[in-house]
Amino acid sequence: MYRYDEFDATMVAERVEQFRGQVARRLSGDLTEDQFKPLRLMNGLYLQLHAYMLRVAIPYGTLSSKQMRALAEASRKYDKGYAHFTTRQNLQYNWPALVDVPDLLDDLAKVEMHAIQTSGNCIRNVTSDQYAGAAQGEVEDPRIWCEVIRQWSTFHPEFSYLPRKFKIAVTACDHDRAAVKVHDIGLRLYKNDAGETGFEVMVGGGLGRTPYIGQTIRKFLPKDHLLSYLEAILRVYNLQGRRDNMYKARIKILLNAKGADDFASLVEKEWAAMDAKDVDLPADEIARIRDYFAAPEFEPLPETSAGLDSNSTKNKAFGRWVRTNTHGHRAPGYAIVNISLKPIGGIPGDASDAQMDAVADIAEQHSFDEIRVTHEQNLVLPHVKKDDLYAVYLALEAAELATANIGLVSDIIACPGLDYCSLANTRSIPIAQRISERFADLGVQEDIGELKIKISGCINACGHHHVGHIGILGVDKKGEEFYQITLGGSGAEDASIGEIAGRGLSSGEVVDAVEKLVGYYRENRQDTERFLDTYRRLGAEKFKEALYAAA
Amino acid sequence: MKAVTGNRLSDGAVVYLTNEDQWTEKFANAARFVTEDGPDVLAAAQTRSAEIADVYLIDIDEEGALSGRAVVRETIRTLGPSVRPDLGYQAGGEL
To answer: Which end of chain B is more exposed for a tag (fewer CB within 10 A), N or C?
Structure first.
């Protein structure tokens, strides 16, 4: 894992002290709320419905056990004993008092954590594949490049006041778990036909009120030129992105107004005009960062584990969990473990302090001290011996963290919605809870197979509804909560924006509607088709008919 | 009718303006104003910047209950998150 050098440590410590002064001046009345608001937002502090909310950065979703314990401790000390993992691999505290936030940030700084780049019109915390460094078929660990981007982008003077926020995601696998095509910039690291490693550069993806899939503006960028090329993109955006209308200020609007080809030419021109070697990192610096992400020392193990096979047979629930929640690892005899934060009827992404501590202990004992956060609001233990899976399962079960539903109908992304968020029009979490309860039977869920339901409580689309196989968007209809269904979206390598199915549904109708859609799929699927495959084969009309058919 | 609400500066807690010009955590103790007085009362509250963040008017019906378009939102603010009945003012009993 990356460890702070003296510059990182000083920068974070100074930032905490600066914010402490700003908070003191706000509390004394020297700063008005209008003056203070942009300052607190630069430190990840929002004001929500019931309280302040602090968003803590988890760079590319990677945490050590020590950091997880510090997050748990902060939730006890400054919050109400729980926290919320977000779709940007970050963590949110829902109840910190303004007066306590400087101390909270001070505690986090001691474990190399902060809330920088979690808000405001800057380059936000970079996200990545949660299986980085563990995935089969990965070209190299994408977090090396995430860290390169983090160092370049943090407090970058030219890009601290962009037209709007800016999100970058990096993957190094063919199967995209980082939703790179719906980011301002998506980077896919791969080997070209000549055997060289570089990035496919996709620009202008995004959700919100104007959803777009990112377009490739460069098929292959030699990896060593990443920073200069990113700087060229950001420079074009910074100069030409709209500042007159916040709804048209994202790079997706600029790229689509100009067309991808013209936008790409502008970037190439800017790139050619710049002295790339002033921006690109020298090889020894890249090597230094690369060393931080060296693979742990995996034991030489046989691919199969006799203990795992026998326990899977003896304990059916464990067998199911292995099928749904574990994933192949690049090292023989190891597995990737997904920890579901979606208990049946629970709040997607929430974890109690005790659960966070439990995950820290398990990771320390069984996963080389590493934990990942996923953009689907779950956690991952990236490197677990297959021989240890049963022990890990039992420990997770004891912490109520062993729900076997990864990628299934109850593994729902939901934004905090009107239960917490001051921007929301409707609640999201109760809809997720009721869908999860309707499909509580894990055997039925496994039979339904991969089905991604994503719920947003307003058009800002924090719940990624546009890219849900089934998306649900909350809309306010004269003071009543209504929900619009979209179908056929995907945030993976086969990315697509879902189509609106038809009239909005009342809160009471939504769960029945989802059940009808799932029922239609189960009746009409062929072979191993997923919901999305059947939808794409049969077309929107059939599913709309099923959805709106009289009961 | 109207009431004045905001979030207390020091901790962000939801509060309402009382007849005594104090901030209360109990919606039941919130002062009710005739709609025409709303803007003046709000303007006065907005000057109390060292006590309160994000202050605004909410709709109240003749019985003093929350009403209008934002009734779901304001009910949730008054009680706490609907998905965590153990948190917020709803957890403390009398509102």
So the answer is: C
pLDDT score of A499 more than 80: yes
Residue A551, pLDDT score: 55
- How many structural domains does chain B have? 1
The CATH number for A6-109, chosen from 3.40.50.2020, 3.90.480.20, 1.10.10.10, 3.30.300.30, is 3.90.480.20
Q: Model confidence over A186-224: pLDDT tens digits?
A: 999 999 999 999 999 999 999 999 999 999 999 999 999
Looking at the partner chain, which of A26, A32, A49 has a beta carbon nearest the beta carbon of B76?
A49
pTM over 0.80: yes
Helices (H), A249-327: 251-258, 260-273, 276-279, 283-292, 306-314, 316-325
- CATH number corresponding to A306-398: 3.90.480.20
Asked if the Cβ–Cβ distance from A33 to B49 is below 8 Å, we say: yes
Q: What are all long-range contacts of A518-524, with beta carbons under 8 Å and residues at least 24 apart?
A: A518/A409, A518/A439, A518/A448, A518/A451, A519/A546, A520/A546, A520/A547, A521/A448, A522/A447, A522/A448
CB contact under 8 A, A97 and B70: no
Domain range annotation of chain A: 6-109, 142-292, 306-398, 417-548
